[in-house]
Amino acid sequence: MSTIREISQKANVSIATVSKVLNGKRGVNQKTADRILSIARELNYRPNLSARQLKSGKSRTIGIITEDLTVFNSPEIVDGIAAACEESGYHYILGNLRFNKRYGNGPRDQKESNSLVCETVNDMLSKQVDGIIYIGCHSHIVVSLSDECTPKFICAYCKSADKDVPSIMYDDKRAAYEVTELLIKKGHKNIGVLAGLADSMHAANRLLGYQEALYDNNMPYNPHLTVHGDWGRNSGFELAGQLIEAGATAIFAHNDEMASGIIDYCNLNGIVVGQDLALIGFDNREISQVTRPTLSTVSLPLFEIGQTAGRLMIKSLDGESDNNNNIVELPCAIIERESTGVYS
């Protein structure tokens, strides 16, 4: 592997000039810079990141810890962080806690899971990362991440117990409000809700948005039109009949998996979704495009959550001032497909 000295000798310029070009600094005319970069490629030059770190005191590396990389939200968020790193010349290291594989819907032993988080944070610190972005499987409060004075932390898709740690989320409540208003504008007065688990922050926020939309449209809340599932397709199948028997002409399911179970129930019982019943899910999972009928749903800004977290981290590491809003909620988008139909 070549060195800066070899490049300077072949380009017939000083080492300082080569260093300026390779580090993206100004002060070298474009023709000379192009020649230096061409020679660097020709000689297969690779920067010595360890030497740069020793000189600058920064690794320009961000640690990413995912609670579980196999959960649907994580890959897109990681991709957004990677894009932010790429545009600013940062690197990243990825750690995977495998929570979903280890614990299912949630850790059975909080002490064990907290210990696992701390071990992974310490592993990242040993790799000299400048900051850590922690990605949750779902919206929840995570253990305190800032016991160490360094590095900086940001949470994505979750919140920290430490209020000084910024959190990048999406606006569950607003999305649910807009879903409910959409169904109201289509003429529905009996809108059922298949909510997620009762202890879920997602379910609580979406129920609140639903109730606020009813209130703002002078429609009473009917508790018989709300049931709780377990986020799985089977619970959608098992609970659909209860909502339909209670008089629901439209159902807002808190995720696409449960919504697909409602479609299964309707198909089995001769109920035409999109005509006899309007249905909308949440998450814009792959299944929403292959159900029959196709499923209207809410698209989450996953890439944008990652990109926003990455940019916020890099601004902070580079000493750029930013606003003091430690909780950022990004908007969702409703995607209408066949399942919401037309109702009059």
What does this structure look like?
Helix 9 links the parallel strand 8 and strand 9. The mean pLDDT is 88. The protein has twelve helices and 14 strands. It has 344 residues and is an alpha/beta fold. The radius of gyration is 25 Å and the shape is elongated. Helix 10 crosses helix 11. Strands 2-1-3-5-7-13 form a six-stranded parallel beta sheet, with helices on both faces. A four-stranded parallel beta sheet has the order 9-8-10-11, sandwiched between helices.
Describe how the helices and strands are arranged.
Blueprint: H1 4-11, H2 15-22, H3 30-42, H4 49-56, E1 61-66, H5 74-88, E2 91-96, H6 99-103, H7 110-126, E3 131-135, E4 141-142, E5 152-156, E6 159-160, E7 167-170, H8 172-185, E8 191-195, H9 201-216, E9 226-228, H10 233-245, E10 250-253, H11 256-268, E11 278-280, E12 297-299, H12 302-317, E13 327-330, E14 333-335
Parallel strand pairs: 1-2, 1-3, 3-5, 4-6, 5-7, 7-13, 8-9, 8-10, 10-11
Antiparallel strand pairs: 12-14
Helix pairs in contact: 1-2, 1-3, 5-12, 8-9, 10-11
